[in-house]
Amino acid sequence: MSSWSLLTVFSLLATSAFAGIGPTATLNIANDDIAPDGLSRSSVLANGVFPAPLITANKGDAFSLTVADKLTDDSMDLVTSIHWHGLFQQNTAYADGVSGVTQCPIIPNNSFDYAFVAPGQAGTFWYYSHYHAQYCDGLRGALVIYDPQDPAASLYDVDDDSTVITLADWYHYTSKNAPAVPAPSSTLINGLGRYSGGPASDLAVVNVVKGTRYRFRLVSISCDTNFIFSIDGHKFSVIEVDSTNHHPLTIDSVQILAGQRYSLVMTADQDVGNYWIRAQPSNINATFDGGLNSAILRYKGATVADPTSTSSLSLQLNEQDLHPLTAVDYLSDKTVGGADVNLELDVSFNAGLFEVNGQSFEAPDVPVLLQILSGTPPASLLPTGSVQLLPKNATIEIAIPGGVLAGPHPVHLHGHTFSVVRSAGNSTYNYENPPIRDVVSIGTLATDRTTIRFRTDNAGPWFLHCHIDWHLTAGFAIVMAEDTPDIPNEDPTDAWNALCPAWNTYSASTGITQGGLKPIKAT
Prior knowledge:
Distance between the termini: 43 Å
Number of strands: 31
Largest sheet: 6 strands, mixed
Structural class: mainly beta
CATH topology of the largest domain: Immunoglobulin-like
Number of domains: 3
CATH superfamily of the largest domain: Cupredoxins -  blue copper proteins
Helix content: under 10%
Shape: globular
């Protein structure tokens, strides 16, 4: 097969990833070679495509997502688990998909059905492997729950598979073979990109019609890199942040960290033509020469050609300018440290590992959820020093000082959204109408003190971790064990109960464990 036809096949594979499936579907997890930036490598794929297939549903739908492990390439991890990022898993913590916290991994030639509902939730989410750094090898994709009564529906005309935009960093080595300072080889937009010195492989094209308003659902499926996203000549109205509706805010660019999502309404109001879509990366060559870090916005009627547009930005998003449509009830005490429980998470870096309050997180042999269901006393939950107990129906305020090496670190809390009462780079607190999200930057300055607040209304062991996967596998995580007395009221499925016995047999025969810290060099 010619090199041209190979690139065409890979382009079609990337395009097919955005044909939505779900809310009932099977994800076959297998290895295959792909070349999204022109260089072929073995990868971990769901249903043979990268990004993984877009999963769609309507508000109130029940999900039944069967994950079948068909992995065979032992240069990468052969077991898996999948987390559905942003979905609260109320009463179904066993479906949260975190190896070592809420489940044992799915072993080769086995499958597991993630069955759950997401009552009241709608917006832009994503999903990915939550076993070691496996999602860096390709197992990551977008998930959208549409709201037929979307309060922002009058602001846009088009919101479908074609308006989902994923940003990814891509590596020419496997996660198991990553060096001590992992650095991505390329930026992929909707699964396509180019690397420095590589071929002029296909770029993603987003097609628009002049005069039409588009809701672009921007999803960072990044392993590490944060991006500054923009489209030459166009402005956006931000209406959603990490699945929470916010008052419209006009911007022309946004820094988006790993795991974050934004809905950006753009009016196609420029002359018919081609315009560069730009994703300026934080940790690789930030040039746009030769189509690096780029995709194409193409108006109907434009010639098929690379853009000649230029970038001029002046309205980058400031997080503290975001305000949610709906108020929350846990901000009544508007004083710093005025929550029922006030915590500080001190993050440090020592001998190649991250520590949270002096402890590096390493997944235990028995998942935290199984420990709780088996009657382990809360004070004895493993891993020692990495489980924080939280009471029921309490307001929780967590402060995370900045200045940690290798930042900005995007910190994600499972099982909740939270109000960001103090953003990185800002010294003031907002208890009136702060932004609500589920991934927040803790900044880069020693003077930063990112502070979040939420209510404990969802029993379960919820992971809080850095969403730079290399940092997670180097220990940057802690478990928030919320309302442990009520967790045994959950009733895991028989299939979930079978995961750990199968895993234990597999682990004993292979020597593979759920834990295993991987030190890095932080700069």
